[in-house]
Amino acid sequence: MADRPLLAVEALDKYFPLRRSLVAGMMGHPRRRVQAAKEVSFAIGKGESFGLVGESGCGKTTLGRLVLGLLPPDGGVIRFDGQDITKVEPTARRALRRQMQMVFQDPYSSLNPRIRIGSAIGEPIRLHGIVPPDEVAGEVARLLERVGLPASAASRYPSELSGGQRQRVGIARALSVRPKLLVADEAVSGLDVSVRAQVLNLLADLRRDLGLTLMFISHDLGVIEYLCETVGVMYLGTMVEYGPTSAVFARPAHPYTRALLASIPRADPSAVGQETPLAGEPPSPVDPPSGCPFRTRCPSARPLCETPPPRVMLPGGHWAVCHFATEVVRNGR
């Protein structure tokens, strides 16, 4: 099917068990667990840029690792190019990992400081047989130039490069196996503002030129608005809003999204109404609130919010998990 998404996530769950004390175990107390992802669903079309946004600890990075197969899910389905990849055999997993690559937040920690840049990029090329052995050096040089670095950088060590240059190396290494999907986890959060803009422009150019599909994880809504066509908003392990970025930013339907957007400096403060920026701390993921997980911080919470909210469908593939989503969009508050 031509319109089949490259990545489709359906009702994905992930929990991390907490350690029990010896006394609790002897007394038979049930083992507690952290809710990292609960019934998360979204899809990314081929060649699309999807942004995943939310506060620290909301489950964004866990979701990225679940998609890449670095963590096993506890429930739900992940389909990549139509194939259910949640229970694939190890040999098939290796082939899938070539098609799905990650760009990490800290490029220095993801590079071996004792290995030259050329070897770091060339190793996956050799491992997967991307080009014949005698063409690896040329392929490395081509990749370096593609990400805006001179071919001579291949002979340098990570410590000899700036943060922005190391992130470009990380992108080149991810591209070395010619993936279909690139997962970028806070890939520009540690960079200076000017360098951040350069790397964002590079990612946008690569997506357009190579036909890449991008899953961009960030806490910065401004970055998401610039780079991504669709967006998913995470809160306490759940996706509370999803849709085209233009629709979600212009007509946010969940109070959490509205509070996040109110925190972005804008030339037109009335663009998202008169919402108060987000305040307070998220509740513990070990003991989340009943019903809507945001109700303990929501200025508009009502008794109905103590019951699980439905997914409310809005125009244009936009939805929000809130009892009052339609009312919020209609009234602009």
CATH superfamily of the largest domain, please?
A: P-loop containing nucleotide triphosphate hydrolases
Sequence of strands across the biggest β-sheet: 6-7-8-3-9-10-12-11
Helix content: 25-40%
What Rg, in angstroms, do the CA atoms define? 21 Å
DSSP summary: helix tally: 11
Q: Compute the number of strand runs.
A: 12
Shape: globular
Please trace the helix and strand order, writing H or E for each element.
EHEEHEEHEHHHEHEHEEHHEEH
Note poorly predicted spans.
Answer: none
- Any idea of the CATH class of the largest domain? Alpha Beta
The CATH topology assignment of the largest domain is: Rossmann fold
* Average pLDDT: 88
Characterization of the model:
This protein is α/β, with parallel strands linked by helices. The chain folds into two domains: 208 residues, 3-Layer(aba) Sandwich (Rossmann fold); 81 residues, no CATH class. It is 32% helix and 22% strand. It has an eight-stranded mixed β-sheet with strand order 6-7-8-3-9-10-12-11, sandwiched between helices. Strands 2-1-4-5 form a four-stranded antiparallel β-sheet, covered by helices on one side. Strand 11 and strand 12 form a beta hairpin. Helix 4 packs parallel to helix 6. The protein is globular. The two termini are 39 Å apart.
